[in-house]
Specification:
homodimer; 146 residues; mainly alpha; DNA-binding
DNA sequence: CTCCTTCATTGGCGTGACCAACATTGGTTG
DNA sequence: CAACCAATGTTGGTCACGCCAATGAAGGAG
């Protein structure tokens, strides 16, 4: 009676969007339980991987709009995971630095996310997971550049 | 300089969510150009596939919250794609019916969506598309029941 | 020196997915 | 039959995310 129309289930765009609903819920529930948001993880990850940077640069690395970076960095700074200092060499720029607590926070969030991946991919074998990841990566890369 | 951290690109949840951003944009841009929204298509599809139903039932079929169904049906009714009449057999229930214009609208939207699938899957071969669709379907089905 | 760009920040928008409350009505059960 | 529970339509929010416009300050290029 409440079956999903074939028109929908046959379309990759539907599958991706709908699966993303579940994925987002898993991720944000898991993060919320730790008092965090997705934006926090993205920015911490960008910071850890390429080192201190301006807010604009962090936003570019983590695919976060610079206006949203402001609020997220505010929150991270208030929790002591990040330090915001004026860039001495560059007038208007802020220099964002990862604190030791921030690095630990990132590791904790990584553990949380690893668990989420497992819940998300549920019934898939290791081989299928790899195949899915590879295909998604190729499609995403195609849209990231164009 | 603005490279995406491996921590992100390696995670299926990131790939799915990020790809969903692109997918949603393609879909909603295409629909917007025709004066429609995603909810409209879902409800029309549910109507066409299983016949006239109450708003609550349509929402269940198309995975739309019942409070959001109200607004979408308002819009569809105002455009003449759907008719809302009180269910004679059932006091509080509304009976939603697809009009001939609604059926035509659905077909037009289908054409739009087919084009979107092509843009979305971009560089993938037919075989890869089939593999991706199958894997996504399995994962989604797993989350739809639990 | 002027122009164009970059940066941080504020404030806003739209979408999609929800949730709570309410009045009403149908169905179920004691 | 009466009392209760479930479902329905509706209003009016909330939240995360992605994005856009404008602004003031500052750097770099010509």
């Amino acid at each position: 009676m409440d079956e999903i129309p074939r028109r929908l289930t046959a379309k990759p765009s539907w599958l991706i969007n709908q699966l993303s609903v579940h994925s987002r819920r898993l991720v944000s529930d898991a993060f919320a339980a730790a008092g965090a948001r997705g934006y926090h993880y993205r920015l911490l990850a960008a910071l850890h991987e390429s080192g201190p940077a301006s807010q604009a640069e962090l936003g570019r690395r983590g695919r976060v709009d610079r206006s949203d970076v402001v609020a997220a960095i505010n929150e991270l700074a208030a929790q002591g995971y990040v330090e915001r200092t004026p860039d001495p060499d560059h007038g208007r720029r802020n220099r964002i630095t990862l604190t030791p607590e921030g690095a630990r926070r990132l590791r904790d969030m990584d553990d949380v996310l690893d668990q989420v991946q497992d819940d998300l991919l549920g019934p898939l074998s290791a081989g299928d997971r790899e195949t899915l990841t590879r295909l998604l990566g190729r499609v995403l890369a195609h849209h990231e550049q164009g």
